[in-house]
Every structure is written in C-alpha cells, then in structure tokens.
Amino acid sequence: MLLLIVVLLNLFAMWYGIYQLVKKIMTGNKRPVWIIASGMLLFVLISICYYPLLLTGKSFEGLIACLTIVNSIWIYLVKKHLFYTWPQNLYSKPGRSTTILLIGVAILTVYFVFHADKYGSWDAIAIWNLHAKLAYYPGIFQTLYKSGEGAYSHLDYPLMLPSAIAFLWHTIGKLSTEVPLMISYMLLVTLPLLVYYALKDVGAPLSAYLSLLIFVIDGNFKMIAVSQCADTVLSALILLTFIQYHDLKSSGADQTWLLGFTSAACGWVKNDGLLFCLVFTAFFMITNYKKGKVLYRYLAGLAFPLLVVISFKVHFAPANDLISASNGQLTSLASVLTDTSRYLLILKYFISTIITNYPYALLVSCALLIHRRRAFLTTPFAVIGVTMAGFFAIYLISPHDLNWHLYTSLYRVYQQVYPSLIFFLLLSFDASDGKLNASKV
Amino acid sequence: MSLISSYTKYILSGLIVLMIGYKIWKLNRIDFNLDIWTKELQPIKQNMLDGSEVGVYDSIKNPARIPQLQYVLAPVIISDRTTADSLLFIRPMAQALDLKGNYTLIKEVTVQDVIISLAVKKK
User: Fold this and answer.
1) Running DSSP on this structure, what letter comes out for residue B69?
2) Considering A237, A371, A406, B36, which has the largest number of Cβ atoms within 10 A of its Cβ?
3) What is the pTM (predicted TM-score) of this model?
4) Given B51, B53, B70, which is nearest A130 (Cβ)?
5) Sheet of B86-92: strands edge to edge?
C-alpha cells in the first residue's frame, strides 16, 4: 500500500512537471491538449524509466527510490513557481461544449462495454501482453529474452507498451488484466478528444465537432482501439508529433526538442514507428536545413528515446524477420522487385482497405480534393504519403505469404496515421494558406 | 435550461464511470478460456522453474496452443521443441499417453477437452 502511494505521488509529480513543459512549448494550444499530451508523454516516460530495470535486473523498489529522489529535487528547485501556478492550472470551468463531448465519450464507453475483450485481440495476447508479462520479471528478463528467441513471436518489437504495463502492474502489486484493458479504454477516449481540442485550439470548431462525430461512429477505429495492441498507442504519438509540429509552425517558436522526443518515442512503440520517425525526421531536416538551432534542439530531443531503442535492439532484440538471413526475398531481390503481381496485389489491398475500413477518411479526402487540393502539398501529407510508401516497400520484400501479411496487418497500419490524417484533412478545410505556411519551423 | 444542462453533465459523467465499473465487474465474473487454463494449469506451473524452458508435444496440433500456453505459463519459456528436457504432452481425452519411452510423468491435468501432462527426460 505504501509503495502504491509513493508511486502514485511520483507519477503525479512527473505528470505535473511534463505538463509545465508542454504548456511552455505548445503555446498555440490550451489546457485540455496540454493535459492529454502530458499524460501521453508520462506514459512514454514511465516505460523509458522501466527499461533500465530490464537491462540491470534490479528491483522495482530501487527504481521508485531513484524517481522519488529526482522528483524531490525538481520540486524543491521550482517550488515557488509550482505553488504560484497550481490553482489556475488545474481549475477550469466546464465550457458549453462539455455536454456534447460527454455524449461522445459515453457512446465510446458503450462500445467499450459491449466489445472490449478481457485479454484483447489475439495479437495482444501473443505479443504485447505476453511481452509485458516477461517484462514484469526484470530479474530474469535477459534469460527469458535470450532463451525465448525462436519460441516467442516478435521479440524484436520495441518495449514501450509492455514496459509501461509492467510498470503499472508493479504499481498495483499484481498482474492484472485491467491494466491493459484500461489503457485501451483511455486511448479510445483520448484520441478523439485530442483531435477535437487540437482543432478547436486552431479556430476550427466545426471541424472539431465533425472529427468527434467521425471517431464516435467509426467502428473500425473503435475495434482496433479496444484490441489492446500497440497500433493505437503509436497513432496517438504520431498525432501528438503532428499537433506539436503544426503548433510550432504556426507560432514560430523554436523549442523543437519535445517534437524530437515525441517523434522518436514513436520508434519505441513499434518498428513501424521507427519508419515514421525516419520519414518525419528526414522531412524536418530538409525543410529546416538552414535553421541550426531548430535542428540542434530537435536532434537533442530525438536522441534520448532513440538511444533507448538502439540499446534495446543491441541488447535484446533478435533480427527482424524482414532483414534476417532467413528472408529469402532479400536473396532474390531482383525477381521480387520486378514481380508485377506483388505490386498489383499490394495496391489492391491498399485501395480496398481504405474503402472497406476507412470510408470516412476517403470521404473527407475526396471533399478536400474538390474544395482545396493544394492542401495536399503540405509537409504533413507528404510525411504520411512517404510513410505509406515505405510500408508498400516493406510488403514488397515481406518473407511471409503476401495475402496473409496484408490481410492481417494493413488495416492496423492505416490506423497508425488515421487520427493524424483526419486532423490535417479537417484542419485544411478551415485553415487559410497562411496557417499552413512555415514560419520558424 | 442551464440547470438542465449542468445536471446532464453530472449524469453523463456518472453514467460513464458506472459503465466502466460495470464492465470490470462483469469481466471478473466470467471465466474466459485463458482464465480456465490459468487456473487448471496451476498444479503444473508449480512444478516449473521461472525462466526454464519447457517444450510442447501437441498431438492435436492446434497452432494457437503454444502462444496460449506461453501467455498462461509465463515466465516459463514454452517452445515448440519436442526434444526439450521438460515436455508438455497434450492429447485429446480419448487418447492414451505416450511418453515416447524416455520421459517420466510428473503431473497431469485436464483442461476443457484436453489432457496436459508434464514430463521430464529420464537421466
């Protein structure tokens, strides 16, 4: 019980610290976005804090002792500022739109009540929650990972979600199915809210309500969100990266280190996130190559989560099935790349998945194409497009049965960029050209 | 009107909390397959060391069985190696146990429609 109280106090201190930083950086947004963003970043941070336990095999109590010391030091250093800002930061009178939002949340909750499985989807059981169970035992984690190679599936997947779940299991003192279940619920609710508030903050209230409506009625989004897989965590962090990017661009601020941190955190969730991080960073560097300070800060923020990912890949992860020696497609690369039937099959799935699983995104895209096609020429759409092209290339060299691989994964790949796509599509309806042009970033 | 609106907010908030509470309560009252497997395999798990490797010989050849056992028996490493020093023999109810001559039976349990036997290689 004492441990639970100490951990909760530490988590609150960490969240509040992140909240203060987010508030200073995301100046174009308001309190709800800051609260949700700091919650997401706290989730990333606890998984990063847990990772040294897996490396060293030390106890959870030791980690909490270290966190308590660090939190005590920063609270002591900024205590005056903390107490000044406390009341006005945490109290806010509910607005008129609160009822509509609560109706949206209630509908999403009804879906959760009727459709969420206790153990999640098959992938959640066999990959994410199983890896979390392994991560729950830091003392034998190295043994489990090394002996488990070949026995367990996808041990090369990064550990953000499993580590965060293991951290929370230690917090409550037992392995409980409620932890991943509630994480999936929080994501189901906070993602639509984040898009809603981010759109509202940029002065697009109609688009904000439309986004809420889309997420509330989109059965595909809700199904993947409650599956307890990492795709929705990744989509939340990709969205947060884009919201920060848009905010920095609009405000002209140059505090890009948090943007770097968030984009690299995507790579700590899934290998797919590494692809996004690579593409986003490449675009960011190309569009900001003359701004040394902006780039330096971005790369400084990027370095921390990226080092964790590299450490994981070096210490624990076996070779990914795409680049391992057993991938026969790599040895016959020329014939794979000239096989037109593979291209056509992938293309067919890319199109049919959008039509069957993401009709709302398709509908809004068509509307924007008619209304304002130049909007598609902006950096965010280019990043999403190149990321999807990257997935196309990955499917091309996939060692698995292509039909099976596309059928079982493509609809989840789309989910990773779906909230960001909805955000930018709806934003583009309202945004004037000036809003989408670059300033300092 | 504003009074109704403010009550609506409280009612909706309360309803959301109640729904989540109901969901958790309901899930804990139902025995899912994995709950049954976790409970029934407990006597076998007590004979396994955390971090040790146990192979599986599944005569039913259900592809979902190994991931299911991995989840239930973690942190014991369950592999598909049929030559491991410790082996889980899985067979349907009607089938007799065949330990392939060189294994000793340690523990046996029945879970749903299958019999699972933990055996170790004879020294």
Assistant:
1) H
2) A237
3) 0.93
4) B70
5) B77-79, B53-58, B86-92, B114-121, B103-111
Q: What ipTM did this prediction achieve?
A: 0.91
What is the least distance, in Å, from the CA of B110 to any CA of chain A? 22
Give the model confidence (pLDDT) of A336-390 as tens digits. 888 899 999 999 999 999 999 999 999 999 999 998 888 889 999 999 999 999 9
C-alpha distance from residue B13 to each of A29, A99, A215, A230, B17 (Å): 25, 9, 19, 28, 6
Q: In 10 A of CB B100, how many CB atoms?
A: 12
Nearest to B75 among A98, A110, A140 (CB): A140
- Cβ distance B67 to A133 less than 8 Å, yes or no, reads no
Residue-wise pLDDT for A295-340, tens only, equals 999 999 999 999 999 999 998 888 777 766 666 676 777 788 888 9
Judge whether residue A287 has pLDDT over 50.
yes
Of the candidates A324, A347, A335, A362, the one whose C-alpha atom is nearest the C-alpha of residue A395 is A347
Q: What is the pLDDT of residue A145?
A: 82
- Please state, in angstroms and rounded to a whole number, the distance separating the CA atoms of residues A340 and A128: 35
Q: How far is A322 from chain B (nearest CA, A)?
A: 22
Nearest CA in chain A to B51: A144
Count CA atoms within 13 Å of residue B42 on its CB side: 5
Per-residue pLDDT tens digits for A12-57: 999 999 999 999 999 888 899 999 999 999 999 999 999 999 999 8
Bridging pattern class, strands B103-111 and B114-121: antiparallel
Least Cα separation, residue B109 to chain A (angstroms): 23
Backbone angles phi, psi at B57, to 5 degrees: -120, 100
Could you tell me which chain B residue has the CA closest to the CA of A128? Answer: B71
Contact B23 A148 (CB under 8 A): no
The answer to whether the beta carbons of residues B109 and B36 sit under 8 Å apart is no
